[in-house]
Amino acid sequence: MILIELFAPPGALDSAQREWLARRMIELLMASDQPDDSHAPEVLEAARSWTQVLIHEPTTWVVGGRQSVDPADPPRYVVRVSAPAAWRKDMSGHVIDCLTQALAEAEKAAGRDPDRLRHEPHAWIHVIGVTEGSLGVLGRAMGSLDLIRHLTAPHRDAIARRSTADLPPGHVVDPVCGMTVDLNTTDLTLEYDGTVHGFCHGQCRRIFAEEHGVSLEENRRDEVVQ
Q1: 81 pLDDT exceeds 60?
Q2: Residue where one domain finishes, among candidates 66, 101, 130
Q3: Alpha helices in the chain, H assignment, sequence order
Q4: Which structural domain range is residue 101 located in?
Q5: Is a pLDDT exceeding 90 seen at residue 106?
Q6: Same domain for 123 and 23
Q7: What is the mean pLDDT of residues 17-30?
Q8: HSE (CB half, 13 Å, CA atoms) of 194?
Q9: Same structural domain for residues 41 and 84?
């Protein structure tokens, strides 16, 4: 679902550090400090299982067109994150923050200043949207809606059984992904069988509408690829 490619100077990370950093990136990216606002645990686990990290060590690294990166200097990093284009805008801030935190933790563990990554341009993170229909998995091209359907479909029954007793007034559970939604602040709702459902994203709303034969009259803008 998400491909993370980390580029680091040769020798900056040993094998144990590379393994730890790759796992930490996925852990931070798929975790939530506010469980009530997170997707259902089953959906997060499914998304985690489809997330991959590759670490590259380029033999040539030139900055500013004047000099190569000195191995003796604190390492620079470039991270490229590829995800469906429809998700790119909404996820970019979260992704950049999580991956910067993971790199900072690695720097601190190596005895280097972790704060430099937030004060100097030493970690570039590019979130790239893969054009709809250009992502291939399971032997076929998949769009962002296809991915959400595939990831959430096996867990819809568990989501439907999720207790809402502890939710604040006016909050509901997105029936597709399990995220908690505040009906007072969203226009992404649909009424079906006498119940008002709220959705975290226009794509979850569209999937629910298509599967239940509900007509969508607006909110098309929420489904446009950013």
Answers
A1: yes
A2: 130
A3: 15-30, 41-49, 85-109, 116-119, 144-152, 156-160, 202-212
A4: 2-130
A5: yes
A6: yes
A7: 95
A8: 0
A9: yes
